[in-house]
Specification:
The protein has 14 helices and twelve strands. The protein is of the alpha/beta class.
Length: 352
C-alpha cells in the first residue's frame, strides 16, 4: 500500500485538516482550524480500550474496526458530503495510527488526495512545546504593571485596538489571574489548548515591533505560562499603570460585581485566603458579602490583600520596574482608547 503519511512541515499544504480523535480528545486541544470527524465516539473508544485490556487485542481490533467503518460511512454521507472533487485533506489521530489511516484510505478510494500526519497529534503537541521554548524570546515586551483594579487589562485591549501588538494572556486563559478571576460561564481551556493558542497569538506578531503584555504570575488560574515567556516578560520594559483608589474600587465593583449573585460561592473563595489572612479577617469579609457592603469589601481587599500581594510579587521579578514609565489611567472612562493612544505617543511607538 502506498505510504500516505506526510510530516508536520506540510501542515499548511492541504485544503482542510481533519482530526479523527474523539470529541473529548478534540476538546482538550487540536490543530487550529481542524474539523473533528471522530471515527470512534468517546464511549466507543472506552469499549475498545476495555476489550484490549480485558479480552484480547484481536477482539478489540475486530470490534473497533466495525465501529470505525460505520462512523466513516456516516461521515462520507454527512461531514464530507459537500467536499469538491479535488479536495486535499490532511488527517490525524493521536499517533498517526489506525484511526487516521482508516479514514485516509477511504478518502483516497473516493478519489480525494488525502494524507495522514506522521506521528499524529503527539507530534504536533511536541512541536508546540518546542516552539514555546524559543518563540517568546524573539520579541521585546512592554509590561503593564500596576495594582489590581488599575485597569491594566482594559488598557491592554485598548492598545490592541489602537494598532499596537498586544498579547492578551487573560483572554487566552479565560481567567483574570487572581483568586476571584474565574470568568462567569466561561471555563478555562486545558493547558494544551492554552499552549496552542499562545503559539498562534505569538506567531501573528512581528519581532520588529514591541509586544505589550500585562504583568502576570506563572499561573493564570489553572494554566501555566512557559518559562521562556515568563523570563522574557520579567526582563521587559515596564509601564506602571496608576489609578486613584476610588477609581480602582469602582473598577472592581464593575468587574467582580457578579460574584455577589452567588454569595456562598464568593465566600468559599475568600475562605481560601485563610493562612494568608486571619480567620477573623476573612470572616469579616464574608459578613460584608452577607450585608451587601460591596465598596467596603473591595476597599479592604485592595488595602489588605491585593496591594501587599502585588508589592511582594513584583519587586523581585520585573527587573526594569524601578525604571518604569508611570502612566495615570482612568480605567472607567469612556475615552480609554484615547488614553491608549496617549501612552503610545508617550512611548514614541508607531502602530502598524
Amino acid at each position: 500500500m502506498k505510504d500516505l503519511s506526510v510530516g508536520l512541515e506540510r501542515l499548511t499544504d492541504f485544503d482542510e485538516v481533519v482530526d479523527v480523535r474523539t470529541p473529548l480528545e478534540f476538546a482538550e486541544d487540536h490543530v487550529p482550524g481542524a474539523t473533528n470527524a471522530p471515527v470512534l465516539s468517546n464511549e466507543e473508544r472506552v469499549v475498545v480500550g476495555t476489550l484490549y485490556v480485558q479480552t484480547s487485542a484481536f477482539e478489540a481490533t475486530r470490534v473497533g474496526a466495525a465501529m470505525v467503518a460505520r462512523n466513516i460511512a456516516r461521515h462520507l454521507e454527512t461531514t464530507f458530503a459537500d467536499r469538491p472533487r479535488g479536495w486535499r485533506p490532511l488527517v490525524y489521530c493521536w499517533r498517526g495510527g489506525k484511526r487516521s489511516e482508516s479514514l485516509a484510505v477511504w478518502l483516497n478510494l473516493m478519489g480525494w488526495q488525502a494524507r495522514r500526519l506522521d506521528g499524529g497529534y503527539k507530534t504536533y503537541r511536541r512541536s508546540v512545546l518546542d516552539t514555546l521554548t524559543v518563540l517568546p524570546r524573539r520579541f521585546k515586551y512592554i509590561v503593564l504593571t500596576g495594582s489590581t483594579g488599575s485597569g491594566k487589562t482594559r488598557l491592554l485591549r485598548a492598545l490592541g485596538r489602537a494598532g499596537a501588538q498586544a498579547l492578551d494572556l487573560e483572554r487566552l486563559a479565560a481567567h483574570r489571574g487572581s483568586l476571584l478571576g474565574a470568568l462567569q460561564g466561561e471555563p478555562q481551556p486545558s493547558q494544551k489548548a492554552f499552549d496552542t493558542a499562545l503559539v498562534a497569538a505569538l506567531g501573528a506578531f512581528s519581532p520588529d515591533r514591541p509586544v505589550f503584555i500585562e504583568a502576570e504570575s506563572r499561573a493564570i488560574g489553572r494554566v501555566m505560562l512557559p518559562d521562556a515567556l515568563l523570563g522574557a516578560m520579567h526582563r521587559g520594559r515596564c509601564v506602571s499603570v496608576e489609578a486613584q483608589r476610588d477609581e480602582r474600587i469602582a473598577f472592581l465593583l464593575d468587574d467582580y460585581g457578579h460574584l455577589f449573585d452567588a454569595p456562598e460561592g464568593f465566600k468559599a473563595q475568600l475562605m481560601k485566603l485563610i493562612g494568608l489572612h486571619s480567620r477573623e479577617r476573612v470572616n469579616r469579609w464574608c459578613r460584608f458579602i452577607d450585608e451587601d457592603a460591596r465598596a467596603q469589601l473591595f476597599t479592604e481587599l485592595i488595602e489588605l490583600h491585593y496591594d501587599p500581594a502585588y508589592a511582594r510579587s513584583s519587586a523581585g521579578h520585573f527587573t526594569e520596574l524601578p525604571r518604569a514609565t508611570p502612566f495615570a489611567l482612568r480605567p472607567n472612562d469612556a475615552d480609554i482608547d484615547e488614553q491608549a493612544h496617549a501612552l503610545l505617543a508617550r512611548l514614541n511607538i508607531e502602530t502598524g
